[in-house]
Design goal:
Number of helices: 18
Shape: globular
Structural class: mainly alpha
Distance between the termini: 67 Å
Largest sheet: none
Order of helices and strands: HHHHHHHHHHHHHHHHHH
Length: 536
C-alpha cells in the first residue's frame, strides 16, 4: 500500500480531532501506569503485589463491561464519555494526593485502581462504538491500526518522560499530569461534527435486536464460532504472552540488574516496537486470521528467546519485535471483531473483547508475578512462550477448519501441481505420438486418463486428464488430435511425420477405397486414395 493509504483514516476531520486528543490522553495514561507499577514495587518489593494492582484494574471489567456494551448500543455516547473523562481525572488526582501525603498508603492505591477499572469497564465499549462512527467502513481497519499507533507513540513519550520524572521527583507528578490530560478528550467530544459521523450498516438477518440486552449479545456471539476462537487465542496470548509490564520489571529488578533505569529503557524499547507493529498493521489492506496466527507464533517464539537473553541490551533487542507482533495481534482481533459482526451488536461485541482483555490481565499478571518469584523470571518467559506457541498452533487449525479448510486447499494445490504436471505432459505426448484410428483412439485416450489418475490420487481433488472422443465429419480427418478444432490439419502439433503430412490430402470421397497395402510394411494404410482422385 502507498504511504497515503497508511494514514487513510486521517482524511476524516472528526477522526483527526479524536486522534490528536487521544494521543495527549494516552501519554498521561502510560505515565500513570509506570508510576503506579513502580510505586507499588518500591513499597513492597514484590512483583506479585504489582500484579495484584493490575488485577484490581481489570477485575471490574468482568462484571461491568457487558453493561457498558448494552449501554453503548442503547444510549447516546457523548454524555457517557464526558462523565467517564471527569471520573478518570478525579481518580488520577486522588493518586497524586496519596503519593504526596502518603494518606491511605497501599490500600488507597488499590481502591483507586479498582475504581479506575470500573470507570474503564463502562467507558470502553461506549468509546469504541462511538469512535467507529468517525470513519467509514472501508477506513475502519486503518483507523484501528492508527489508534494502535497513537497508543504506541503516546506510550513511548509517556514511559520515557515517566521514567525520568519518577527517578527525579517521584510518581506524584505523573498522576497529576494524567489528571489534566483528560481535558483534551472532553474538548474533542465537543469539537466533533455530528453531521459528518457515519451511520452503521443495516442489521443482518441473524442479528439480535439492539434492545435485546446482555443475553442477546451472548446469544449472538455463540453463533460466531470464528470470532470466539479469535477471542480465545487473544486471551491466551494476552495473559501469558503480553503482560510485559510484570515480566520486564521482574527481569530488570532481577537477573538483568537494570533497576529503574533499565525498566525505563525496556519500556521505551517496547513502545518503539509497538509503533513499528502499528505501522505494519496500518499498511495492510486486510488484517485477516492468517496474520493473527502468524503474529502469535512469532511473538511466542521470541518470548522463549527473551527468557534466554544474557543482558539488558539483548533482552531489549528481542522485546522490540515481540511488541510489534503484540500490536498486530490486538489490531487484528479488534478489526475482525467489528468487521465480522453486525453493527447493531457492536457495543456488546466490543464488551466481549474488553472482557477478554481484562480476564487475560486478571489471570496472567498475578500468575506471571508468582512464577517470576518462585520459578524465576527467565523460566517464566520460556514456559509461557511455549504454552502460547502451542495454543496458537491449535487455534490456527481450528480457524482453518471453521473457514472451510482454506489452508488445506492451498497445500493440496501446491503439493498436487508439481506431481501431476509431468504425468499430464507425458500422457498428452503419448496420445499425439500413437494417434490410433477410429475406435483405437478412444481406448488410447482412456488409457492415458488411467495413467494420470493414480498419480493424482491422495493429493486432493485433482481431476484426471479427460481426452474427448473425436468426431469424424465430412472433410475432417479421423486421426485429428483430441481438442483440435474440426477440420484442422492432422499432425499440426509438435510431432509431424511424412505420413502425417500425406494425411492433409485425405478426403471423404476416398474413404470407401481405403485399404491399400503398403509395399514396405504390408499393412493397410488409411491414407490411400482411389484412382483418379484429384487429391491423390
Amino acid at each position: 500500500m502507498a504511504l497515503g493509504a497508511t494514514f487513510a483514516a486521517l482524511r476524516h476531520r472528526n477522526y483527526r480531532i479524536w486522534a490528536a486528543a487521544g494521543f495527549v490522553s494516552v501519554i498521561g495514561t502510560w505515565m500513570q501506569v509506570l508510576g503506579v507499577n513502580w510505586y507499588v514495587l518500591a513499597e513492597t518489593g514484590s512483583a506479585t503485589s504489582m500484579g495484584f494492582t493490575v488485577l484490581l484494574q481489570a477485575l471490574p471489567t468482568l462484571v461491568l463491561s457487558v453493561w457498558g456494551g448494552a449501554l453503548a448500543d442503547r444510549l447516546p455516547a457523548k454524555p457517557l464519555l464526558i462523565g467517564a473523562q471527569a471520573a478518570h481525572a478525579l481518580l488520577a488526582a486522588g493518586l497524586a494526593v496519596v503519593a504526596v501525603t502518603g494518606a491511605g498508603g497501599l490500600p488507597a492505591i488499590f481502591a483507586i485502581s479498582l475504581a479506575t477499572g470500573a470507570v474503564s469497564a463502562i467507558e470502553g465499549p461506549v468509546m469504541g462504538r462511538w469512535a467507529s462512527t468517525l470513519v467509514d467502513r472501508d477506513s475502519l481497519g486503518n483507523a484501528l491500526a492508527l489508534g494502535s499507533l497513537t497508543n504506541s507513540a503516546g506510550r513511548i513519550l509517556g514511559m520515557s518522560l515517566g521514567a525520568v520524572v519518577v527517578a527525579a521527583v517521584g510518581p506524584a507528578l505523573l498522576f497529576a499530569a494524567n489528571s489534566v490530560s483528560f481535558v483534551a478528550v472532553v474538548v474533542a467530544l465537543f469539537s466533533v461534527r455530528e453531521g459528518e459521523r457515519h451511520a452503521g450498516e443495516p442489521a443482518a438477518a441473524d442479528a439480535a435486536p439492539a434492545d435485546g440486552g446482555i443475553r442477546a449479545g451472548f446469544r449472538y456471539l455463540r453463533r460466531q464460532p470464528v470470532v470466539l476462537v479469535a477471542l480465545a487465542l487473544s486471551f491466551v496470548l494476552g495473559s501469558l504472552g503480553r503482560n510485559y509490564q510484570v515480566t520486564m520489571a521482574a527481569m530488570s529488578d532481577g537477573p538483568l540488574h537494570g533497576g529503574v533505569s533499565g525498566y525505563g529503557l525496556l519500556s521505551t524499547v517496547f513502545a518503539v516496537g509497538t509503533v513499528l507493529g502499528a505501522l505494519f498493521a496500518a499498511r495492510r489492506a486486510d488484517l485477516g486470521y492468517a496474520v493473527l496466527v502468524g503474529a502469535g507464533l512469532l511473538a511466542s517464539g521470541l518470548q522463549i528467546v527473551a527468557g534466554l537473553a544474557p543482558g539488558t541490551l539483548s533482552f531489549a533487542a528481542v522485546i522490540l519485535p515481540v511488541a510489534a507482533a503484540a500490536v498486530v495481534i490486538d489490531t487484528t482481533v479488534g478489526a475482525r471483531a467489528q468487521l465480522d459482526t453486525d453493527y447493531a451488536m457492536r457495543g456488546r461485541v466490543l464488551a466481549a473483547l474488553a472482557v477478554t482483555g481484562s480476564v487475560s490481565a486478571a489471570v496472567g499478571a498475578p500468575l506471571l508475578g508468582w512464577l517470576a518469584e518462585h520459578a524465576g523470571p527467565r523460566q517464566t518467559l520460556v514456559l509461557a512462550g511455549t504454552i502460547t506457541a502451542v495454543a496458537t498452533a491449535v487455534a490456527g487449525v481450528a480457524l482453518d477448519r471453521l473457514r472451510e479448510r482454506r489452508l488445506g486447499h492451498r497445500l493440496t494445490r501446491v503439493l498436487a501441481a508439481p506431481a501431476t504436471r509431468p504425468v499430464r505432459r507425458a500422457a498428452t505426448t503419448a496420445a499425439r505420438v500413437i494417434r490410433p484410428a477410429g475406435v483405437g483412439l478412444a481406448s488410447a485416450t482412456a488409457t492415458a486418463a488411467r495413467v494420470v489418475r493414480p498419480a493424482a490420487a491422495g493429493l486432493g481433488a485433482v481431476p484426471a486428464v479427460a481426452l474427448p472422443r473425436p468426431t469424424v465429419l465430412a472433410g475432417a480427418s479421423p486421426v485429428a488430435l483430441p481438442g483440435a478444432p474440426v477440420g484442422a490439419r492432422p499432425g499440426a502439433g509438435r510431432l509431424r511425420s511424412r505420413r502425417t503430412a500425406r494425411a492433409i490430402q485425405d478426403c471423404a470421397a476416398c474413404a470407401p477405397d481405403r485399404g491399400h497395402r503398403s509395399r514396405w510394411t504390408d499393412l493397410r494404410s488409411p491414407y490411400a486414395h482411389r484412382d483418379g482422385c484429384p487429391a491423390a
